[in-house]
Specification:
The complex is a heterodimer. Chain A is an alpha+beta fold. Chain A is built from 19 helices and 49 strands. In chain A, the strands form 12 sheets. Chain A has a 10-stranded antiparallel β-sheet with strand order 7-8-13-14-29-22-21-18-19-41. An 8-stranded parallel β-sheet of chain A has the order 42-40-39-38-34-33-30-43, with helices on one face. Chain A is elongated, with a radius of gyration of 36 Å. The chains are: A alpha+beta, B alpha+beta.
Chain lengths: 929, 710
């Protein structure tokens, strides 16, 4: 009976606890916080002692914290790792000896009380001073006049602290005597007569008096010991004196007829060393006072810590979002300061991690982290299987190719096209969009149990790109100079000067998930860039990539020569298009690659010439006319960022127009050997500096507008963003600027009335692009991820048409079809008129299976099947996507149309409907709701 | 091992940082090796279906599992080495049971680091119980059957031998073959009662002859320092239905590349190696010495092999996390995989086997089994080979055509299509296909048939032409003789008189070369003393020689031409003729002027150049000829080639002897010395170039250092 009662009681308590923690918001933690700003959606709180931030979502009363409020389950029990979790940001930099250091806004600023909070419109601004301004030693006067010392003593409240000071400091004075007080005193290295003359050094109190001398306790021995300690103390605090006989009478002048407390070297216990600075600091004694003391005593004044940074952070609420901004231009860093070693150095802030623990989920949480790797990937919280794997760290738009030449390429690695991330914890989620500075950003995600007990996802920013260069050391006596000597750090000339802004939105209930995040992101894109829906009467297009010419080495009349092999000439392109039209495919968008002189690896695009091997101008005009007549859009492809052939008389000079690595060489893009992973030295192509783009685009347009194309396809502008690390401040293009320059280039192309098709599909292309090919359709295959989601597609469908990689190298018809239906992708084929074998033994042998006759029927069938389903939802967003089971996905469009696809080889039944193996069904029952 | 592991870690870190900048098609998919030993891309061959962790099947994490075996009833056995247990899964990779131990005479015994296992068709499980120094045999129910332990043999096994079994295979007649640690003599063979019966399949060491020569010259000290020719241990094995043992050798000491072997019951290696290179994993490999920044270097490190249907076998490379699949002829069908943290990437694979069509790969880095499903392309290739082996050529060809449609870089598919075209009598088409597939044997076969047909068709024409030619030759010959005999005084005791006109003189000089090559003693004498040759004509001959080589490079028939036309560089070809020639003349002049040679540089130059005429005269027709002869007639081709060289050598020798007025012995002596002298000069030049490069590098370093440090 009793047992049963206890059991029910404990169950009730348990249930209550569970209810409190999950259902009722975690408001109790807010007690230490103050409300600083409020609007109809949110309340912004700050803990004025720790600068931690909290946001209360009014719709759910749930509070989001910048650092975990409940550390009870944290495995790390003490130390700076635990304290550091309370930081809003951390800043990393490198010292001149190339060791990395990180300063954390809590440990290195808040704990030192070096911050100010000021209210701004809609929130607060916190200015941190990172790094202690003064080292601990700077608070300790080695010699201090009696009155001052006693004033300090009075301020010390703790009895034991006062005792420490009294017991450690020795009160000394010099009193003039008649005779020679040092007659029998022999001190090594010093002549007391010379220094002190007839002034007698007398200790009045302190450890010297109480010291035991054992059997040799004579006045001479005591004096000798005192002189030794004093002279050593002077040496310790004087940089210019390194031996006892350099001490002069002036150095002790200040003690004459005065009483001075001296912290004699070696007379006080070691463990007091940490206590003394604390006591002085608590007594309000400042380094400025110490400087005064030391100057009076002719000792070196303490030197302030050179490694000090100031960084502001502005936290505001904007509508339903929390907006965190760092005006990176206002970050102050030590420039040409004197380090401890006496060198002059500049400490560039290298990277900045922002809100590393915002919304971190503890070990009991259920949900997932969403990272935008490729099309999007989910990492289940607290997945113990994944702890042995490296955590996720990915750069937005990929790694900046200009930082250092890449020698080898082994893995595809991560690839981020969208600067967003989120975390779903139970029925709540947050979702972040990096608004400014995204080109410098990287996103990291870590599971609980890896370093601490929290699952977290956050972003960081590379403020100053940096690399290490190996100089090939000269052999010295058969030994190569040590590796460290040969390494030199190189930095971007200045740190990033623009703003860094992260916008955080909050979701709850059904919306708390990647579908909700995608919906949020879509509406954000519409607000910010004014994306507009595709026309409501439009149909699904077919993307058709035609490869024009490729170059190959051939022997012509006994001499080897480069010839252009026409894979699809102008006339043949027309033939392929008309074949497709005849088969009933009407909405065709042609991406014509390699249509200008040089083929796929075309000449620099400032001057456009047609490739003779592909046909005449007439034939091209005919093609264009034919296309116009039948409503086919042609997007001739051009690469404005890569120089495949650098000839003497084009507008490109490697030294002037190429981007530069941090090591000052011109940036090249390489092909890599698929077996050895090494780059192939002969197959390299220069990368145009983003600075050159503006001029190049206008030159290109001059030639291009003659042809009367309605659009243009950009091969690399949607794919890569890279800096130009020239040394001059005017010439330097940092990555964020590069992104803006690429956007400006796309803008000027569009303002010429051209429709744009981009490949790759970085988010910077969204405001300009009409079509995206080569968009990420799958999540990355990293083991770290549990599931891949078509987040990219969900955000764009109905607004920009997109397709992944061409379907034809892989012949999995059903899989391709289902993928198109699941993700709303446009069917995309890469074809040539010539036989597929034409690429054998050329640089282009990676273009597999391109002959169009082998694919025509399949493509038409696939297109018809896809368009029969998707035509209805061309202008509809994907509002929901769900994994029903392994290999079964359900996609719901705005108008209620729902497609369920089954990739598996077995039938799948749910809710009374059956999806056949490798098939799909379209449900329309939810329509109109 | 640790080193390998660090490399792998580096690779993984790099993998994360590395980023696809170009076409992503390159990083994925498969590849094969072309005739030129280049890796050429192919489509994706396997898709990553899923991965099975210990946790997923509910037995707790695997720990460094070393072996995996799929039995004939499709049960999957995993040697979970670190956890001292055997985990048995069913076809769907669900847990059947875990074998922690077994009962022997009423007492429980357990495994200690089981490293290998094998299941017979009857269901008997053989476990290489490494830590307990024994092979454990259990029956289908997991009941103990017997131990194989402590092999003893007075002659073959030393007293101190410690039996450390790594892998085990069992043949139909229950003979057991064990790979044991520290055993270099091959497999340890045990009879069905578990009694040691001898070693089998010792890896034969075949160092290359040049190296043997070097070792003869080396001092003992040097010998010690150089790598020993140690026979290598087998790393793993599989057995096919006919009892052939397929084995892999890990490690790289066998330069000959026979790291995959197929042992017949008597232990002889009968693996067919008819591909472009012997099956050995990667062909294009890099080494640390040249690629300082490379994170993976060295030859493939093969750790497991699986024999599949129709003689196809796949080997697993630990170094680069790859799987190579060969057909029974030794052609590489496809290679794929990379040591990445992505799904389908193999960080530290330890074993491979097949489950139906799927590949199971055990990864001891990830502690999981990866299940890879073949794509349509892979199925097509396998079907093509299956049809071929069954003699269904038409179906096979159809499959090869489909494979080609998907991968135009697949050489073996061209041969496959060529074979059927050959059977259908479309010889010209077949030749084209064989040429695309770099299949010289097939091409030769097609050429022979094509030629036969062509001759048959055009017999009348050929016959007429031949007759006409003979008649014409006879007529001309007769007329010439008649004309000569009409004016005998002009041709007898004719005194040479140089033509006045330069062009005429030049042509006469050239024409005289034809006389020289057949009358060397006479001819060279006149060349020197009658001044019947000139520098201009000698230069002309030289240019002709260069052109001959350039022509031979590109126009030699496909069968005999191993060159990659894309790499032809005319200037290099010219230099490769001119430079040795001038070197020869210069060194010879230097030497003979010491040895009282009478020849001037001009004499040497002219004599040598005229001596090279047969090369031109024979090689050019030979280039034409090589286009119409088959592989079997190659001996003729090579013989003629040799003749041209010998003839020229003889002429040059005689020419120099005449020019210097030497006797045979002195001439031989100076000629040999000239050869040595050339080598010395080349060596000095290389040295000089090296020093120059170093100086340049030094200046460059200083410059870079200054720009970065100041």
């Amino acid at each position: 009976m009793k047992n049963a009662f206890f059991r029910s009681l404990s169950l009730t308590i348990l249930a209550l606890v569970l209810c409190c923690t999950s259902a009722v918001a975690n408001e109790e933690y807010l007690s230490k916080y103050t409300l600083v700003s409020e609007n109809e959606y949110l309340q912004l709180y700050v803990n004025e002692e720790t600068t931690e931030i909290a946001v209360l979502d009014k719709s759910t009363n749930y509070v989001w914290f910048s650092s975990p409020p409940d550390l009870s389950m944290e495995r790390i029990k003490r130390g700076s790792a635990r304290e550091g979790m309370r930081a809003l940001l951390s800043l990393s930099y490198y010292t001149p000896d190339r060791s990395a250091r990180t300063l954390n806004s809590y440990v290195d600023s808040v704990l030192n009380e070096e911050f100010t909070i000021t209210p701004v419109d809609g929130g607060i601004r916190i200015d941190y001073l990172l790094g202690k301004r003064w080292p601990d030693d700077a608070y300790v006067p080695a010699m201090i006049r009696k009155e001052k010392f006693e004033a300090v003593l009075e301020k010390v409240e703790d009895k034991f602290d006062r005792e420490i000071l009294e017991e450690d400091y020795t009160l000394l004075t010099l009193v003039e005597t008649a005779g020679d007080p040092y007659e029998k005193v022999n001190v090594y290295g010093i002549d007391p007569q010379r220094v002190f003359g007839n002034w007698d050094l007398i200790p009045l109190s302190g450890p010297v008096l109480t010291r035991s001398y054992g059997l040799r306790d004579t006045p001479e021995e005591r004096k000798k010991y005192l002189l030794e300690r004093l002279s050593d103390t002077i040496i310790l605090y004087r940089n210019d004196i390194d031996m006892r006989n350099l001490i002069t009478a002036e150095d002790v002048e200040h003690m004459k007829n005065a009483e001075v407390y001296v912290l004699l070297d070696g007379t006080y216990p070691r463990f007091d060393k940490d206590e003394i600075p604390r006591i002085f600091r608590e007594a309000g004694y400042t380094p400025e006072d110490v400087i005064e003391d030391h100057i009076a005593a002719r000792l070196d004044p303490p030197i302030p810590n050179p490694e000090v940074f100031t960084i502001p952070i502005i936290v505001t609420i904007d509508g339903p979002n929390l907006v965190v901004t760092i005006p990176a231009g206002e970050i102050e860093y030590p420039i040409d300061v004197v380090t401890k070693d006496g060198e002059i150095a500049t400490f560039m802030p290298q990277s900045l991690d922002l809100l590393p623990y915002f919304g971190a989920a503890d070990t009991a949480a259920e949900g997932y982290i969403f990272v935008p790797d490729r099309s999007g990937a989910l990492i289940r919280l607290n997945n113990q299987n994944k702890l042995t794997l490296p955590s996720f760290l990915g750069s937005v738009y990929g790694v900046d190719r200009s930082i250092a030449p890449q020698q080898e390429r082994i893995a595809r690695g991560s690839l981020i096209r969208l600067p967003v991330y989120g975390l779903k914890n139970g029925d709540r989620a947050f979702f972040s969009i990096i608004e400014d500075g995204q080109a410098l950003a990287y996103i990291r995600a870590e599971l609980a149990g890896k370093t601490d007990s929290f699952n977290k996802v956050s972003c960081g920013f590379t403020l100053t790109p940096r690399t290490t260069i190996t100089l090939w050391g000269v052999r010295e006596e058969g030994e190569i100079t040590s590796r460290d000597d040969r390494l030199v750090d190189v930095y971007q000339t200045r740190p990033y000067q623009g703003d860094i802004t992260v916008r955080i939105a909050f979701l709850s209930g059904d919306e708390a998930g990647y579908s909700g995040m995608a919906n949020l992101y879509r509406s954000y894109l519409i607000d910010r860039y004014g994306l507009s829906r595709v026309a409501s009467d439009s149909t699904v297009p077919l993307y058709l990539e035609l490869i024009g010419g490729i170059h190959k080495q051939e022997v012509v009349r006994g001499a080897p020569r480069e010839v252009i092999d026409p894979l699809t000439s102008y006339a043949q392109a027309q033939e392929i298009i008309s074949d497709l039209l005849e088969s009933g495919v009407e909405n065709i968008k042609v991406r014509y690659v390699g249509w200008t002189k040089g083929g796929v690896h075309h000449y620099f695009a400032d001057k456009l010439e047609l490739e003779k091997a592909l046909g005449t101008r007439d034939e091209l005009d005919q093609l264009i006319g034919f296309a116009k007549e039948h409503g086919v859009e042609i997007y001739p492809d051009i690469d404005l960022l890569t120089v495949y052939r650098n000839t003497l008389f084009d507008g490109f000079r490697l030294g002037r127009d190429a981007a530069r690595y941090l090591n000052k060489d011109a940036v090249h893009v390489y092909d890599y050997n698929i077996a050895t992973f090494q780059r192939i030295p002969e197959q390299r192509y220069a990368a145009v500096s983003p600075r050159r783009l503006e001029r190049l685009v206008s030159q290109f347009l001059k030639g291009f507008s003659n042809y009367g194309f309605g659009g243009v396809s950009l091969r690399s502008m949607g794919r890569v963003v890279y800096s130009d690390f020239r040394e001059g401040l005017q010439e330097l293009v940092d990555r964020q600027q590069a992104a803006q320059m690429i956007q400006a280039a796309m803008d000027s192309l569009r303002s010429e009335g051209l429709l744009l098709m981009v490949s790759g599909g970085n988010d910077i292309a969204f405001p300009y692009a009409k079509h995206i090919v080569g968009a990420p359709t799958e999540g990355s295959n990293m083991h770290f991820f549990d599931e891949s989601v078509p987040f990219y597609q969900m955000a764009l469908h109905g607004y920009i048409n997109y397709a992944g990689e061409p379907l034809n190298p892989n012949s999995q018809y059903r899989q391709a079809l289902l993928k198109c239906l699941e993700t709303g992708s446009v069917p995309y084929y890469r074809w040539t008129y010539a036989d597929s074998a034409a690429v054998k033994d050329t640089l282009f042998n990676y273009l597999l299976s391109t002959n169009y006759t082998g694919w025509l029927d399949e493509a038409v069938a696939l297109y018809k099947e896809v368009s029969s389903v998707l035509n209805e939802v061309c202008d509809q967003a994907i509002v929901d996507h769900r994994k029903l089971d392994e290999g079964i996905y359900r996609t719901t469009y705005e108008n209620g149309l729902t497609v369920v696809v089954n990739y598996t080889t077995e039938d799948y039944s749910f809710d009374g409907v059956t999806v056949e193996a490798e098939s799909y069904i379209v449900l329309e029952k939810e329509r109109g709701q | 091992m640790t080193r390998l592991r660090t490399t792998l870690t580096i690779v993984i870190t790099l993998g994360i940082l590395a980023n696809a900048l170009c076409a992503s098609a390159l990083a994925q998919g498969s590849y094969t090796y072309s005739f030129q030993r280049e890796a050429v891309p192919g489509p994706e061959v396997y898709t990553h279906k899923r991965e099975v962790f210990g946790q997923t099947i509910g037995v707790g994490s695997f720990r460094e599992p070393e072996d995996l075996f799929v039995s004939s009833d499709n049960h999957v056995y995993v040697a979970d080495t670190g956890n001292n247990r055997i985990v048995i899964l069913d076809e769907g990779l669900n847990l059947v049971r875990v074998l922690d131990g077994f009962e022997v005479n009423g007492a429980m015994q357990s495994f200690r680091s089981p490293r290998g296992l094998f299941v017979t068709d009857e269901g008997d499980l053989y476990v290489a119980d490494y830590g307990n120094a024994r092979v454990v045999v259990l029956d289908r129910q997991g009941e103990f059957v017997k131990f194989i332990e402590n092999p003893r043999d007075e002659e073959l096994i030393p007293e101190s031998f410690l039996f450390k079994p790594l892998k085990v295979v069992v043949d139909r007649s229950r003979r057991v073959y064990v790979i044991a640690e520290g055993v270099l003599e091959g497999f340890m063979e045990f009879d069905e009662y578990g009694v040691f019966s001898g070693f089998i399949g010792a890896p034969r060491v075949s160092p290359d002859p040049l190296e043997l020569l070097w070792r003869r010259i080396m001092t003992d000290e040097q010998k010690k320092r150089s790598v020993m020719f140690l026979p290598t241990e087998y790393s793993n094995a599989d057995i096919d239905s006919r009892g052939f043992i397929y084995a892999t050798i890990a490690g790289t000491t066998t330069e000959s590349g026979h790291v995959i072997r197929k042992l017949n019951p008597s232990g002889a290696d009968v693996l067919r190696r008819n591909g472009f290179t012997a099956p050995r994993g990667d062909v294009d490999v890099i080494f640390q010495e040249q690629y300082l920044t490379a994170s993976i270097t060295g030859r493939s490190y093969l750790v497991d092999i699986v024999v599949r249907d129709n003689g196809i076998y796949s080997v697993l490379d630990l170094r680069r996390g790859r799987v190579f699949t060969y057909d029974d002829d030794g052609h590489l069908l496809y290679a794929f995989g990379a040591p990445t943290v992505e799904k389908g990437g193999l960080r530290a694979p330890s074993a491979i086997d097949t489950l139906g069509d799927d590949l199971l790969i055990l990864d001891k880095g990830l502690n999981a089994i990866a299940v890879l499903e073949p794509t349509q392309y892979t199925k097509t290739i396998h079907a093509a080979i299956e049809h071929l082996q069954a003699g269904r050529y038409d179906e096979s060809t159809e499959m090869w055509r489909e494979a080609l449609r998907l991968n135009p870089n697949l050489d073996i598919a061209y041969s496959g299509v060529g074979r059927s075209l050959l059977n259908q009598g479309q010889f010209a088409e077949a030749m084209r296909m064989y040429r695309l597939g770099s299949d010289r044997r097939g091409f030769s076969k097609a050429l022979r048939l094509y030629r036969r047909d062509w001759v048959d068709e055009n017999f009348a024409l050929i016959f007429t032409l031949a007759v006409l030619l003979i008649v014409a030759v006879v007529v001309i010959r007769v007329m010439v003789i008649r004309r000569r005999s009409a004016r005998p005084q002009e041709y007898r005791r004719q005194v040479f008189k140089r033509s006045d006109h330069w062009l005429k003189a030049y042509l006469e000089d050239l024409k005289y070369a034809f006389y020289v090559i057949v009358h060397p003693f006479d001819g060279f004498w006149d060349l020197k003393y009658e001044k019947r040759g000139s520098i201009a004509s000698a230069l002309t001959i030289l240019v002709c020689v260069s052109i001959t080589y350039i022509l031979a490079y590109q126009y030699t028939g496909f069968i005999f031409n191993y060159n990659d036309i894309r790499r032809l560089n005319i200037y290099m070809e010219l230099i490769s003729v001119l430079l040795p020639f001038l070197l020869w003349c210069g060194v010879n002049l230097a030497l003979t002027s010491l040895a009282e040679g009478k020849g001037s540089f001009r004499d040497i130059f002219i004599a040598t150049a005229y001596g090279l005429v047969p090369v031109v005269l024979i090689r050019i027709p030979l280039v034409a000829l090589s286009n119409v002869i088959t592989l079997e007639e190659g001996a003729f081709y090579y013989a003629l080639m040799a003749i041209s060289v010998i003839w020229s050598g003889f002429l040059v020798f005689v020419g120099l002897q005449t020019a210097h007025e030497y006797d045979f012995r002195t001439n031989l002596f100076t000629c040999v010395l000239t050869g040595v002298g050339m080598a010395v000069v080349v060596f000095m030049c290389l040295l000089f170039v090296n020093v120059l490069a170093q100086t340049f590098g030094f200046v460059n370093t200083i410059y870079t250092e200054m720009t970065f440090r100041l």
